[in-house]
Specification:
The protein has 603 residues and is mainly beta. The chain has one helix and 42 strands. Strands 31-42-33-38-39-40 form a six-stranded antiparallel β-sheet, with no helix packed on it. A six-stranded antiparallel β-sheet has the order 32-41-34-35-36-37, with no helix packed on it. 49% of the residues are buried. The structure holds beta-D-fructofuranose. Beta-D-fructofuranose binds at residues 143-144, 160, 171, 200-201, 224, 260-261, 314-315, 383.
Length: 603
């Protein structure tokens, strides 16, 4: 019997009878599975390298997965679903990478006695830092959201998923859906690693005219097959994205250098499918067109020498939006870069400009240069892309709420990483005449509000802090709103604190037109030297007024200033929930108006 901390708790009732282990060499072991149990529980130790697990069914190699098999202790177990192989002979032919000098030494690894069988698993949350109202995978590792589409009243969200551990590996499209952008239902894996490699990020679209020949209204996904090289592949679904068929003619697009994360959309002006592909190491986005999603013609490239060049360019998106809600429209090219963000690591860069169906031409500033624009000035919003076919012309986006610098080290195990709140994007003209993208919480986020736990129409604060209570139920999760009128000279500090003396300090400095977010003393910060940080966002207007909307979840804070014109998304790991909100100034008096705190509803 296994009694270990598990990703999936059902294995507490797991049984190791029915498992036969045979050591064949210092790094090769056979695990034979007998009987008809639903799951094989595989023991993991994150500190070790991946072992290659070849799943052989009735003598044929069915698939290969990579798992960090436990060597000295088991961190948790992951379930491998045996149901497709019911009644068949299942043998795992495992190749490990640790150096062992004798078979006996290899046989002492902790994993061998901890393989087990189980008929059910429970994915009930066991973790303190799992968000209460942000999307997370039920278990395992998640990075980029991708392939999202809206159809028949449902928002479909796919994500880069490792079902066999809480570090990056075995890239699979995980799938969740929601009718309200708040409550997410988890579905079985949508696209799994196949003959051309693992399944990296991509996009999905609805083929209303059946131009690809997969059926009218088929959901067509394009993703990067990542094997020895990166090539682009198609898959289609005729059951609203629940299951996908891999296109037999894959790959549909190949290049002789690293290219990934295809983002495909229908351009009604040219009546062609249009594709933006990240030419990752070349720091450019390639633009292709096609009549049928299968034959692609390269039209142009954008990016060489423009904006922040960073490490790699990834996860593009391209769409048109009205400027200032009027008739004038501009195109937005999203270009996620890693590393090279303003505060280190991953970040979302974007360009505004014009697109004639073939070429993207970026807007320039007064000096004729293409300015660098960032969508979020926190450290934890990456790989942001939009839903295709969103209703009412909305451009609804979501990001991965982490940073490649430390995503694999954050203090959670059962799940690793959440998504940001869904946000709607709009364009506005800044005081400098430039066009900028703003992201505000999607209107559905108003439905998160539960009780108004505090309401102060008008308070005056000085150097001495005014301290108020945050809601105490549900771990302190809440939404905070306020309008601040800063003193004539001086800054305003907004501090979230807890009983352990941990705090997050947000500083509004009208003189420098910035708002800063200091998480250096926010709780657990020592798992990575890149985590403790102060991030600073520009306020894109002059004056001394700022309106703030702040969402606090168990391990994240999202700050939206002036209707999303400045945003900061930052992870935090307080050892106890933040319980107080303090406001004070560096000098003089500030007015805080319309201060409201709502507790948040959870299921
Ligand atoms: C971005 C990224 C993508 C790639 C995916 C792999 O975070 O590197 O470029 O498709 O992650 O999981």
């Amino acid at each position: 019997m296994l009694s270990l901390p598990l990703l999936c708790q059902g294995a507490l009732a797991a049984d190791s009878s029915g498992i036969k282990v045979e050591h064949l060499g210092t790094n090769n072991t056979l695990v034979r599975v007998e009987g008809d149990s639903r799951y094989l529980m595989i023991p993991v130790q994150e500190a070790y390298d991946d072992a290659t697990v070849n799943v052989v069914v009735d003598g044929k190699l069915e698939r290969t997965v990579y798992v960090r098999l436990a060597k000295s202790k088991v961190d948790y177990a992951v379930p491998f679903d045996l149901s497709p192989y019911k009644g068949k002979n299942v043998v795992l032919n495992i190749v490990t990478t640790q150096s062992r000098s004798t078979v006996r030494e290899a046989s002492e690894d902790a994993c061998w006695s901890n393989f087990a069988l189980a008929d059910s698993i429970s994915t009930a949350n066991v973790e303190k830092y799992r968000p209460a109202y942000h999307h997370t995978p039920l278990y395992g590792w998640m990075n980029d959201p991708n392939g999202m589409f809206y159809k028949d009243g449902e928002w479909h969200l796919y994500y880069q998923w490792n079902p066999y551990g809480s570090k990056w590996q075995n890239m699979t499209w995980g799938h969740s859906s929601s009718s309200d952008l708040i409550n997410w239902t988890s579905h079985p894996a949508a696209i799994e690693p196949n003959g051309l490699g693992s399944v990296f990020s991509g996009s999905s679209t609805i083929d209303t005219e059946n131009s690809a020949g997969f059926g009218k209204d088929a959901v067509v996904a394009m993703y990067t097959s990542a094997g020895a090289s990166q090539v682009q592949s198609l898959a289609w679904s005729t059951d609203n994205g629940e299951t996908f068929n891999i296109y037999g003619g894959n790959p549909v697009l190949t290049l002789d250098s690293e290219a990934r994360d295809p983002n495909m959309f229908w351009n009604p002006d040219t009546k062609l499918w249009t594709l933006v592909l990240a030419h990752a190491l070349d720091h450019e986005m390639l633009i292709f067109t096609s009549p049928d999603m299968k034959e692609w013609t390269l039209q142009s490239s954008f990016g060489k020498g423009e904006g922040a060049q960073g490490g790699v360019w990834e996860c593009p998106d391209l769409f048109e939006l009205p400027v200032d809600g009027g008739q004038n429209k501009k195109w937005v090219l999203i270009c996620n870069i890693n590393p090279g963000g303003p505060f280190g690591g991953s970040s979302i860069q974007y360009f505004t400009g014009d697109f004639d169906g073939k070429n993207f031409k970026a807007d320039t500033d007064a000096s004729g240069k293409v300015p660098t624009k960032w969508l979020d000035y926190g450290k934890d919003n990456y790989a942001l892309v939009s839903w295709s076919d969103a209703p009412q012309g909305r451009r609804t986006v979501i990001g991965w709420m982490s940073n490649w610098q430390y995503a694999a080290e954050v203090p959670s195990k059962q799940f690793r990483s959440a998504n940001t709140l869904p946000r709607d994007m709009y364009l506005f003209t800044g005081d400098d005449g430039q066009i900028y993208a703003a992201t505000e919480p999607s209107p559905e986020m108003l439905n998160l509000r539960d009780k108004l736990t505090l309401s102060k129409p008008n308070i005056s604060v000085g150097k001495k802090a005014t301290t108020l209570s945050l809601p105490d139920h549900n771990g302190g999760i809440c939404e905070i709103l306020m309008d601040i009128e800063a003193p004539k000279s001086g800054s305003v500090y907004i501090t979230l604190g807890n009983k352990a003396g941990e705090e997050v300090v947000m500083t509004y400095s009208p003189d420098s037109a910035t708002i800063a977010f200091d998480r250096r003393h926010s709780g657990i910060v020592d798992f990575s030297q890149d985590f403790p940080a102060v991030t600073t966002a520009p306020i894109l207007k002059s004056g001394k007024m700022l309106s703030l909307r702040i969402f606090v979840d168990r391990s994240s804070i999202e700050l939206f200033a002036d209707g999303g014109r400045s945003t900061m998304t930052n992870l935090v790991f307080p050892t106890q929930p933040y319980s107080t909100l303090s406001i004070n100034t560096s000098a003089g008096k500030a007015k805080v108006k319309n201060l409201k705190i709502y507790s948040i509803k959870t299921k």
